[in-house]
């Protein structure tokens, strides 16, 4: 049954509309009957609640899952019953990290067992009159029964208790499984008067997003500061779509240089929003908005077109920039007409596909070993585009996948590069990555090179290319012309000194 916890006294009636919705969604006949009669007693007789969840519940997690309209109705009821008694309630959202990975590694059945176990633990830790349901594969919602004292301290204590219980190691199929829980909550006293259940859930969602971003195992409360940040994010969301269409979003370019010749081997296109009031807005602040509004494909189109226009203008200015690399997200890589579209774009600009680099995150390759993403990458490689594996070291791509996807170059993540000249462990790790790439016949580029010491050691260790603030920061198209000219002079001087001293 969806509601195994007992509801007593007036609270049972207060939750009736939600139960009706839950019954509709879940199709539980006893629940429907009870709802129709409006008698809490019927619930009791049906045996559908007021018993603790036990092992026999395992495998029936779907009956404890509710959709968003049921969740909203439940939250409305929680708010109404609290307000009518002049008491407080709270919505606590819990995101379980690690379930996706367990599904991938151990299979759906193990993950489902853990989902059930999590709900059982959640319900056992809450008080009798609180309610807990699952709202997605990895997320749970608890609504607290009306209470006099639900201040920040009380809610933090409760969240910590919940987290401790949910993070207990669990033995499933003879293996120990470790989950972590991020928690975001919103207490009703923090809401404006007249707020709806949906708004209470939305506030808890914002707090949870903040917890997840600071996780694992973080706990965050919805606060006024968060409210300000959230409304700024919302106004950004409404502006970002227009910005994409009116040309305010465009790429800046960061040079990549070859360690043996010193020449520019390419540039990476990095999206920037040139905002009339806020100034230069980095992608971290607007990519999520674009993802949420399903406009990542449009971003890719815009960045690609600006990049090809820039490449042509550099050619005309007499610069030698062999290639522009563009970041492709998983959404774009799922486009069944991707290679056709790229071929068409390159033809339109009169540029060969060799001039375009495709940057694919290692995590995308690791999670899509076959299917449309794999086919697209192979097709783009065949077309002549250069395939870069971005943030290498942060995912789990197999060596077989590197071969299958015909990757040309590993872009070693900044976390492995930083301080290599001062940290022995970093140095050893980087040398091992370079050795492996060499044996696999892959080119390498080190990202985030900030100091001369790092640059020098990378050249010495045989890393083929470097990119980072130490060489140059990302810059607009025109500025790159100036930079490249000055850089060419410096390289020529260095070569001259090298020849004289040699
Ligand atoms: P990324 O692809 O790993 O890009 C490298 C990021 O590191 C860039 O941040 C760059 O400005 C920064 N960076 C470069 N050198 C250094 C350094 O020496 N030190 C430090 N601390 N940082 C350095 P940015 O431009 O903020 O981009 C962040 C991420 O946003 C990118 O990471 C990429 O994943 C994504 N992104 C940017 N533009 C696009 C785009 O057009 N499409 C897609 N799908 N993603 C994009
Ligand atoms: Ca990149
Ligand atoms: Ca990167």
How many domain regions? Answer: 2
List ligands, each type once: ligand C2E, calcium ion
The top level CATH class name of the largest domain: Alpha Beta
Put simply, the count of helices is 21
Poorly predicted tracts of residues: 1-62
Mass-distribution shape: elongated
Percent in strands: 15-25%
CATH superfamily of the largest domain: EAL domain
- Order of strands across the biggest sheet? 8-9-11-12-13-14-15-16
The CATH architecture name of the largest domain reads Alpha-Beta Barrel
β-strand number = 16
Percent helix: 40-55%
Report what the structure shows.
- The structure is a single chain.
- With 502 residues, this protein is of the alpha/beta class.
- It is built from 21 helices and 16 strands.
- It has helices at residues 9-14, 16-26, 29-37, 40-46, 68-84, 99-106, 108-125, 152-166, 197-213, 224-245, 287-292, 296-316, 330-333, 338-349, 362-367, 372-383, 399-404, 414-417, 424-440, 452-461, 477-501; strands spanning 90-97, 131-134, 139-143, 170-172, 175-177, 180-187, 219-221, 249-258, 264-275, 279-281, 324-327, 356-361, 386-392, 409-412, 443-446, 465-466.
- An eight-stranded mixed beta barrel has the order 8-9-11-12-13-14-15-16, surrounded by six helices.
- A hairpin with a 4-residue loop joins strand 2 (131-134) and strand 3.
- The radius of gyration is 28 Å and the shape is elongated.
- Residues 1-62 have low confidence and may be disordered.
- Ligand C2E binds at residues 254, 270-271, 282-284, 287, 299, 303, 327, 329, 390-391, 414, 448-450, 468-469, 474.
């Amino acid at each position: 049954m969806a509601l195994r916890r007992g509801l007593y006294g007036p609270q049972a009636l207060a939750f009736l509309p939600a139960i009706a919705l839950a019954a509709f969604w879940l199709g539980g006949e006893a629940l429907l009957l009870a709802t129709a009669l409006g008698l809490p007693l019927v619930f009791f007789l049906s045996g559908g609640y007021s018993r603790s969840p036990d092992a026999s519940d395992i495998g029936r997690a779907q009956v404890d899952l509710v959709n968003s309209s049921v969740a909203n109705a439940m939250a409305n009821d929680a708010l109404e019953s609290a307000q009518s008694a002049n008491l407080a309630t709270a919505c606590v959202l819990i995101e379980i990290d690690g379930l996706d990975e367990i599904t991938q590694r151990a299979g759906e059945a193990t993950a489902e067992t853990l989902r059930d176990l999590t709900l059982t633990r959640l319900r056992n830790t809450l008080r009798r009159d609180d309610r807990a349901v699952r709202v997605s594969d990895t997320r749970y919602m608890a609504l607290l029964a009306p209470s006099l004292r639900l201040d920040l301290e009380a809610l933090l204590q409760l969240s910590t208790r919940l987290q401790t219980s949910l993070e207990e190691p669990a033995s499933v199929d003879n293996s120990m499984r470790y989950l972590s829980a991020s928690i975001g909550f919103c207490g009703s006293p923090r809401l404006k008067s007249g707020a709806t259940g949906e708004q209470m859930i939305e506030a808890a969602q914002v707090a949870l997003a903040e917890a997840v971003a600071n996780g694992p195992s973080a706990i965050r409360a919805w606060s006024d500061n968060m409210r300000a940040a959230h409304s700024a994010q919302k106004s950004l969301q409404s502006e970002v779509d227009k910005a994409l269409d009116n040309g305010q979003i465009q790429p800046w370019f960061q040079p990549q240089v070859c360690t043996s010749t010193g020449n520019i081997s390419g540039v990476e296109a990095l999206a920037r929003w040139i905002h009339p009031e806020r100034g230069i807005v980095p992608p971290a602040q607007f990519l999520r908005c674009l993802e949420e509004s399903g406009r990542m494909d449009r971003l890719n189109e815009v960045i690609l077109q600006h990049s090809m226009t820039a490449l042509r203008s550099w050619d005309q200015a007499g610069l030698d920039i062999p290639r522009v690399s563009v970041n492709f997200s998983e959404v774009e890589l799922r486009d069944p007409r991707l290679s056709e579209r790229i071929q068409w774009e390159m033809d339109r600009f009169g540029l060969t596909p060799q001039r375009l680099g495709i940057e694919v995150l290692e995590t995308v390759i690791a999670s899509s070993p076959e299917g449309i993403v794999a086919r697209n990458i192979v097709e783009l490689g065949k077309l002549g585009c250069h395939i870069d594996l971005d943030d290498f070291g942060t995912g789990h791509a197999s060596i077989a996948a590197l071969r299958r996807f015909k990757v040309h170059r590993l872009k070693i993540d900044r976390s492995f590069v930083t301080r290599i000249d001062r940290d022995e462990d970093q140095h050893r790790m980087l040398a091992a990555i370079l050795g492996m790439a060499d044996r696999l016949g892959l080119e390498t580029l080190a990202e985030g090179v900030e100091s001369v010491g790092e640059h020098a050691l990378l050249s010495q260790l045989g890393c083929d290319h470097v990119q980072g603030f130490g060489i140059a920061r990302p810059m607009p198209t025109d500025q790159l012309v100036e930079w490249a000219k000055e850089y060419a002079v410096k390289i020529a001087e260095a070569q001259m000194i090298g020849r004289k001293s040699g």
